[in-house]
From TrEMBL, chain A:
Pfam families with a match to the protein in the record: STAS (PF01740)
Organism listed in the record: marine metagenome
PROSITE patterns documented for this protein: STAS
Family matches, as InterPro entries: STAS_dom, STAS_dom_sf
Domain STAS stretches: 4-113
Protein name in UniProt: STAS domain-containing protein
GO MF annotation list: anti-sigma factor antagonist activity
UniProtKB/TrEMBL annotation, chain B:
Protein name, as recorded: Histidine kinase/HSP90-like ATPase domain-containing protein
Organism annotation: marine metagenome
TM spans (from-to): none
Pfam family, one: HATPase_c_2
Gene3D superfamilies assigned to the protein according to its UniProt record, in alphabetical order: Histidine kinase-like ATPase, C-terminal domain
Keywords: Kinase, Serine/threonine-protein kinase, Transferase
Location of the Histidine kinase/HSP90-like ATPase domain: 23-137
Record bears the keyword tRNA-binding: no
MF-aspect GO terms: protein serine/threonine kinase activity
Keyword Transport tagged: no
InterPro entries from the UniProt entry: Anti-sigma-factor_SerPK, HATPase_C_sf, HATPase_dom
Length: 114, 139
């Protein structure tokens, strides 16, 4: 199995999740678990740093759609930065960019989420 | 005119989670050999991941593996992904939209859409004896 790990950090009101590895079903589930735990504690703003997840599949990305749906219920938001071009293209094809935001850098992302 | 057949790479991968990444490693080598740019190489790898996991998930293949053929026809790369599973009816596959998926319990089902968007041409041949997805990318 491909290794997948993540690091979760609070940066003010925003939860930043740095991922590492193949974003497949396993990776997607780990991200959603981390988000839902934080949502239980009142967090509603999430940023994914995907610099070290340059390979994804549609099953993993589908789990991000689930997170977006849950965040809509609490007026929350999901954003991303450091995307590989093919990952951004995949997000565009699947329509994630209609309901979440791709930022060009961490600083722009933190500013855009606040 | 040369009788030499076009360069071909044949790969058999077992239906084991994440083994689709073995196919992408081969695709990267083939793309490099063809001097394809990074964007096209990444699109090929992504489409190949989707075609392979579709075969893994939906074929119910007793054979337990998937065959992948890469054929370099001059400026054209032809990739065939074949399983010996139960086949499927493409006309029954609904084109997904984010508007429908975001409220649906079933968020998956994006593979064919991604393959069609990322490759230049895609053809499906499916019978009760199996499915072959043929994808091409021009240099």
């Amino acid at each position: 199995m491909a290794d997948f790990s993540l690091e979760v950090k609070d940066e003010g009101d925003v939860v930043v999740i740095e991922t590492n590895g193949y974003l497949n079903n396993v990776g997607g589930e780990k991200i959603s678990q981390a988000c839902y735990e934080k949502m239980e504690n009142g967090k509603i703003l999430f940023l994914l740093d995907l610099e070290n997840s340059k390979v994804v599949n549609s099953i993993g990305v589908s789990i991000l759609i689930e997170i977006i749906e849950k965040l809509q219920d609490v007026d929350g938001r999901l954003g991303y930065y450091n995307l590989a071009p093919i990952v951004e293209k995949t997000f565009n094809i699947m329509g994630l960019t209609k309901y979440s935001t791709v930022f060009s850098s961490k600083s722009e992302a933190l500013e855009g989420m606040s | 005119m040369s009788d030499k057949s076009p360069p071909k790479v044949e790969l058999t991968i077992p239906i084991i989670p994440d083994m689709e990444l073995a196919a992408t490693k081969t695709a990267e080598v083939v793309a490099k050999h063809m001097d394809l740019d990074d964007e096209k190489s990444a699109e090929i790898s992504m489409a190949l991941i989707e075609a392979t996991i579709n075969a893994f998930e939906h074929s119910d293949s007793a054979e337990g593996n998937v065959q992948i053929h890469f054929v370099i026809q001059g400026e054209l790369l032809v990739i065939k992904v074949t399983d010996r599973g139960k086949g499927f009816d493409k006309s029954q596959v609904k084109i997904p939209t984010i508007e429908e998926k975001i409220t649906s319990d079933h968020k998956r089902g994006w593979g064919l859409q991604l393959i069609q968007e990322l490759m230049d041409t895609v053809e499906f041949e499916s019978t009760k004896e199996g499915t072959t997805v043929t994808m091409t990318k021009k240099k």
